[in-house]
Amino acid sequence: MMCLAKGFTLIELMIVVAIVSFLAAVSIPLYQGFVINTQVNRVISEAARLRTSVENCLLESRFVIGLAAGQCDPAASGSNLLFGDSQVGAILAPGTGVPQLASPLTQTATITASFGNNATPTLINSNAQVVWSRSEEGYWICATTGVPANFVSRACP
């Protein structure tokens, strides 16, 4: 009588486990790198949106950050990747923050976005920031601090 074996042998299962382990070892660090890259670019974009508000405030001679008449409301939206309270007293959703402006505004205004909350631990632990600085001539320059060199965006070195 002939017995037909059903299922996989131990060596076949070990080969499958080895292949899956190798793929995980390669793909997880790549995925984490893509996440960091995406978060850096998103924060650059979120902080950059405040430039228009700052320009309007400077043109209208509204230099104090606030909501009262004659004050500048930067209209910052809460982000789950940032740390920083609203400068105009707006109530932000839990776990969100906004980019910060130096008050009073000057011709050389600075927008600082600090990574926090749901940002990757790599960015939080290195105190990473995106800083948009305005020159007296009205040009905006972006720079990052604390962002690991391999994740620095070309848009904001």
Automatic annotation (TrEMBL):
One of its GO terms (cellular component) is pilus. The keyword Membrane applies. The chain crosses the membrane at residues 7-31. Keywords: Fimbrium, Membrane, Methylation, Transmembrane, Transmembrane helix. One of its GO terms (biological process) is cell adhesion. It comes from the Bacteria. PROSITE patterns: PROKAR_NTER_METHYL. The keyword Transmembrane applies. Pfam families: N_methyl (PF07963), Pilin (PF00114). Belongs to the N-Me-Phe pilin family. This is Pilin. It comes from Halopseudomonas pelagia.
